[in-house]
Every structure is written in structure tokens, then in C-alpha cells.
Amino acid sequence: MGICRMNSLVTNLKQMIKLNNKHQPDVPKGHLPVYVGEIQKKRFVVPLSYLDQPLFQDLLRRSEEEYDFNYPTGGLTIPCQEEAFIKLTARLPNS
Question: Secondary structure of the chain in the HEC alphabet?
Fold first, then answer.
């Protein structure tokens, strides 16, 4: 995926976040909810700074390929195992 396409993906996600945050008051400012799992989805709240991280961007690409922004949970859904997501995000900086 090229840089322009990744920028478009991140822009679309930021628009989705603005809309969703109005309806999800339990999500702190500067964070977004994501749903992770292959069959059963678990909700995580992650910092927006993850959107700039290459490892997280790889998950976003996979999400786009799988769901094409039509998420079954109504929010950003990432098709990977929960354990893999936890290990990956543990390696990312929080700011």
C-alpha cells in the first residue's frame, strides 16, 4: 500500500473517530475504540498515536482488506487474534 493510500486510510479513520466519539462518552479524548478478534470481538481503547505507527498501520491495512470500512461491530474492527494484538500494542509507544 502506498503512502497516499495509507494517508487516505488514516484520514478516513479520523473522520470515523470524530463521529463515533460523540456516541461513546467512555472513550477518553485522544483515544479510539477498536474491536479485535477473528470470531468473537473484544473491545480495546487505544491511543490515536498508534495510527502513526507502522506496526499498527499494518493491522489497519489488513482491516481495510477484510472489511473495506464496513465494520460489523460499528467501529474499527481488526481481524487478528487477541493475543497477537496485545503483544503488538505492548511494543508501541503510548504517546
Answer: CCHHHHHHHHHHHHHHHHHHHHHCCCCCCCEEEEEECCCCCEEEEEEHHHHHCHHHHHHHHHHHHHHCCCCCCCCEEECCCHHHHHHHHHCCCCC
